[in-house]
Amino acid sequence: MLTSAQESVIAATTPVVAEHIEAIAKRFYPLMFARYPEVKTLFNAAHQQSGGQPRALAGAVVAYVQLRHEPERLDDVLGIIVDKHVSLGIRPEHYPIVGECLMVAIGEELGEAVTEEVADAWSALYEELAGLLIEKEARRYHDFATQPGGWDGTREFRIVAKHPESAVITSFELAPVDGGAVAEHRPGQYIGLKLAIDGDTVHRHYSLSAAPNGRTYRISIKREEGGQVSRHFHDRLAAGDTLELLPPAGHLTLAAGDTPVMLISGGVGQTPMLPLARQALEEGRRVVYLHAARDGAVRAFADELEELRKAFPALLQVVTVYSQPRPEDSPDHVGRVDAALLADYAPRDAQYYTVGPADFMRCVDVALETLGVAASRRHHEFFGPAESLARVA
């Protein structure tokens, strides 16, 4: 707990730190990677180059300062961070590294404004945040490891099937090498993985694209031309190859109740929607499944959705939107997803879930807000570092 003097320093200096927090974050990552190169494998280089990772760190620090005395809202923010950390296997020993480098970055950016008292107060604030995260993460690791089919740390899985879903998306079915049971996940969640590529260790997380079955997990990956890991999966990995998995995580899960559900996805953002749709349908809820893609060649899971539609004809409505359809395509709509299109399909009092490219999600969120959908009924998740949908692209 911070002392009253430290609280006063934090209150007085927060505006300055907040003003410079993105610049601090940009200094922080190169500094940490130079001092502790072993942690670099935990981060996606593309997210560093795009600025997504520094913005996420900056946003988390500012949010913590603003919400640390509002437990309910703070739990929501910390929950997202814990999800990402669990999928990467972050442990207590990582936190001193971050704290050291963050304080150095603050000192470098703010210079003489960082007096001994200021440094002491912000160090105490970081220790407070780190303690909360360590506690929450330890609970999550323990709860997962002690459930049927769970494990602690990483567990080796083998690719038992590789199946193309479209011209750019391929599914990989993974089964544990030890032959044991597989812990259930909540539909909509993702899973962390660790693998070696040309001698280097890399971490990623991918949505679990199939419902829990107690035997295997399925991930479905889009091949990105500049994506080191996605190209490795598509071009080099095959049935029989192995990798390590971490616990499932993620907050994009179905809200309890019997209200309708509208699932809105763009591109590979469809992957967490399939298990969400199946769960909602099995609960007897109406589902509108709206998917936007470039054309029919890159649209995935058409056969799987048709099977769901046949199984639940009175509950499931599938809507396709193509931006550049081929002559042989027959989408329901051509163009972009906007408020007018959503208004034609949006069920009354539904819960809305959106996943896709950041700009797509921002446009959908604005459209839903325009239609009067309350923020409490609008759910989304970023595949990369968490950002604000209100951010100007």
Detail the topology: elements first, then pairings.
Elements (H helix, E strand, L loop, with lengths): L3 H32 L9 H6 L1 H16 L3 H18 L5 H17 L5 H30 L9 E10 L4 E8 L13 E8 L2 E8 L9 E6 L5 H8 L6 E8 L11 E6 L6 H10 L4 E7 L8 H10 L4 E7 L10 E2 L4 H7 L5 E5 L2 H13 L7 E3 L13
Parallel strand pairs: 7-8, 7-11, 8-9, 9-10, 11-12
Antiparallel strand pairs: 1-2, 1-6, 2-5, 3-4, 3-6
Helix pairs in contact: 1-3, 1-5, 1-6, 3-4, 4-6, 5-6
Report on this structure.
InterPro entries: Cbr1-like_FAD-bd_dom (IPR008333), FAD-bd_FR_type (IPR017927), FNR_nucleotide-bd (IPR039261), Globin (IPR000971), Globin-like_sf (IPR009050), Globin/Proto (IPR012292), OxRdtase_FAD/NAD-bd (IPR001433), Riboflavin_synthase-like_b-brl (IPR017938). Residues 1-138 form the Globin domain. Keywords: Detoxification, Dioxygenase, FAD, Flavoprotein, Heme, Iron, Metal-binding, NAD, NADP, Oxidoreductase, Oxygen transport, Transport. Its cofactor is FAD; heme b. The chain is an alpha/beta fold and 393 residues long. It folds into three domains: 4-146, Globins (Globin-like); 155-249, Elongation Factor Tu (Ef-tu), domain 3, CATH 2.40.30.10; 261-380, 3-Layer(aba) Sandwich (Rossmann fold), CATH 3.40.50.80. The protein contains eleven helices and twelve strands. The protein has helices spanning 4-35, 45-50, 52-67, 71-88, 94-110, 116-145, 228-235, 273-282, 302-311, 339-345, 358-370, and strands at residues 155-164, 169-176, 190-197, 200-207, 217-222, 242-249, 261-266, 287-293, 316-322, 333-334, 351-355, 378-380. The strands form two sheets. A six-stranded antiparallel beta sheet has the order 4-3-6-1-2-5. Helix 5 runs antiparallel to helix 6 (116-145). The longest helix has 32 residues, at 4-35. The two termini are 38 Å apart.
